[in-house]
Amino acid sequence: MNTFRFWTLLGCFLCFIMSEVSAQQNLSTTNKKAINAYQDGLQALQERKIDEAFQQFEEAIERDNLFAEAYYQLGRLYEQNRQFGNAILNYEKSYNSNPEAGVANNALQLLGSLYMRKGEYQKAKAYLELLLPKIPPANNLTIQRIKRSIANAEFALKALEQPLDIKPLTLPNTINAFDTQYFPTLTADKETLIFTAQNYSNRDENLYVSKWTNSQWQQAQSLSELINTSQNEGTASIAADGRTLVFTACGGRNSLGSCDLFVSYRDGNDWTKPANMGQAVNSGEWDSQPSLSADGRTLYFVSDRKGSIGKRDIWVSKQDSIGQWQKAQNVGNIINTSEDDLSPFIHANGQTLFFSSEGHAGMGGLDLFMSQKQGINWSAPQNLGYPINTQDDQVALFITADGQKGYYSLEQDTGERYKKSKLVEITLPSSLQAKIQATTYLKGTITDAKTQQKLSAELELVALNPSQTVGKFISDAQTGQYISVLNTSGEYALFVNKQGYFFKSLHFDFSQTHALDKVLNISLEPIQRDAKEILNNIFFATNQWDLQPQSATELDKLVVLLKGNPMLSVEISGHTDDIGKDADNMILSQKRAKEVMNYLINKGIPSNKIKAEGYGETKPYVPNTSDENRKLNRRIEVKFL
């Protein structure tokens, strides 16, 4: 699935033989026995006789200890076998023995690369600076890459001087139970963790899930038999409510390309049969590494399709008003570079994009970056710093909705054939938390107020200033459960709608208070006589009765409800707290109720179906014992007659 770039033990035997070695007459030695041994070594490589190649190159050096090309080939062999220390030693001997040899530039380039990989940035910079003036001006692409590597080394040296306070905590063995595990994704409540894992004995990538129960992560289980097969499935993303899953599958399914994105929906405790996301999202090329927005309506992913700026780019697709995915678009050259740009993660706030790149200034290889949505554009990516980023590749960072915790895979180079990785958790430093707009969540269960039956209902989250829908969710038909994400700033209305029931409205104001995650179970009243409901998103100025503009969203929903139930009449009642004179409160409550009634009449509700009553402070919802209680008592109610 190409989720990680693994090193193989033997690699390509022939890719570095003839293209990097000059003809015999240009070798750095005239010793015939050394040359014969060297040529025998090249022949052994062509025949994939690795041990013999080692012996022949070593013999060539014994015949001439200044034989640059022989040292160079030994370095290549050691590098392919992941013996990087020996590789560096031989590359240095190759260059030092003859700086003018045909392989000298290659040796310098590989020394720079290996020292970057080791995190020895000063040495890497020194070798790359030796190399730069040796490159012909016509090789502009090579020059630019060397300059970028030098800039990376300089960036890394500064980053090492200002480390972040990061202490990775390895997740328990109930999760890290495989040879390697990576690409974590969590629900907004941080109680469900889904990740990709595999054991190298069968090389089969699958998706696994662990639940946070009794203050600990439970044993990871296969996500679903409908999702995991004998082919590769992985690199998944889940919507905030845990009910929409997008994942990558390679081979064995109805695919358009080498790897495609598929979607599945949670139905109770299981998942639906995965469906290919179609040509609007997938291409005939490699498509992978999805990231869903909190509401599941925007999808970021990686592809190497036609139209990419670099090798692999980040793309985005959005759902239209009827839930159809629109043709994917490249996110643009602020994010994407001429190199690999991978593993996007869109935070629950919908504004902060994290991703991995080797094209932006970093510490070598793939580093993690963040960028903020600014209208239709993105801000210049910021490197997340050391030690989140190191000389190793960093991919697939997940940041919790509250912006406090991070999850990613930490590679372990054990010297074996494949790199291994474990999932770790970090607490983000305050400097990084300050750059992330935190979100909070609401979760709970929707039920029938009379029978307590679990209900599937639509939840609509509306930002009130200005009024716009920022999310739509549906509670689970079997469990009635829902999760909704809110940004921790501004005012919001949450509407819960179901045919045959009075809609429920809730109001959240985070303008001056700190947001807290909430568990809120909601009971819906069936539409019938004497049923009543508080309208929590009707707004008036203090001691005034003119409706404020943000009231329109809720009132328009009431209009729709009344038109759908024309046989019923309603009473609009106004209520106040106990502050002020009783008579004044009675008049104010009557005028507010009448203002709401007039709005409904102007929207087409027959006047003979509505009456307005003011009750002042005579019918408190809760005792007037605190400012919070008094706020609850200042309300508009609707009652079916």
TrEMBL record:
<keyword id="KW-0472">Membrane</keyword>
<dbReference type="InterPro" id="IPR006665">
    <property type="entry name" value="OmpA-like"/>
</dbReference>
<keyword id="KW-0732">Signal</keyword>
<dbReference type="InterPro" id="IPR006690">
    <property type="entry name" value="OMPA-like_CS"/>
</dbReference>
<dbReference type="InterPro" id="IPR006664">
    <property type="entry name" value="OMP_bac"/>
</dbReference>
<dbReference type="InterPro" id="IPR036737">
    <property type="entry name" value="OmpA-like_sf"/>
</dbReference>
<keyword id="KW-0802">TPR repeat</keyword>
<protein>
    <submittedName>
        <fullName>OmpA family protein</fullName>
    </submittedName>
</protein>
<dbReference type="InterPro" id="IPR011042">
    <property type="entry name" value="6-blade_b-propeller_TolB-like"/>
</dbReference>
<dbReference type="Pfam" id="PF13181">
    <property type="entry name" value="TPR_8"/>
</dbReference>
<dbReference type="InterPro" id="IPR050330">
    <property type="entry name" value="Bact_OuterMem_StrucFunc"/>
</dbReference>
<dbReference type="InterPro" id="IPR011990">
    <property type="entry name" value="TPR-like_helical_dom_sf"/>
</dbReference>
<feature type="domain" description="OmpA-like">
    <location>
        <begin position="527"/>
        <end position="641"/>
    </location>
</feature>
<keyword id="KW-0998">Cell outer membrane</keyword>
<dbReference type="InterPro" id="IPR011659">
    <property type="entry name" value="WD40"/>
</dbReference>
<feature type="signal peptide">
    <location>
        <begin position="1"/>
        <end position="23"/>
    </location>
</feature>
<feature type="repeat" description="TPR">
    <location>
        <begin position="68"/>
        <end position="101"/>
    </location>
</feature>
<dbReference type="Pfam" id="PF00691">
    <property type="entry name" value="OmpA"/>
</dbReference>
<dbReference type="InterPro" id="IPR019734">
    <property type="entry name" value="TPR_rpt"/>
</dbReference>
<dbReference type="Pfam" id="PF07676">
    <property type="entry name" value="PD40"/>
</dbReference>
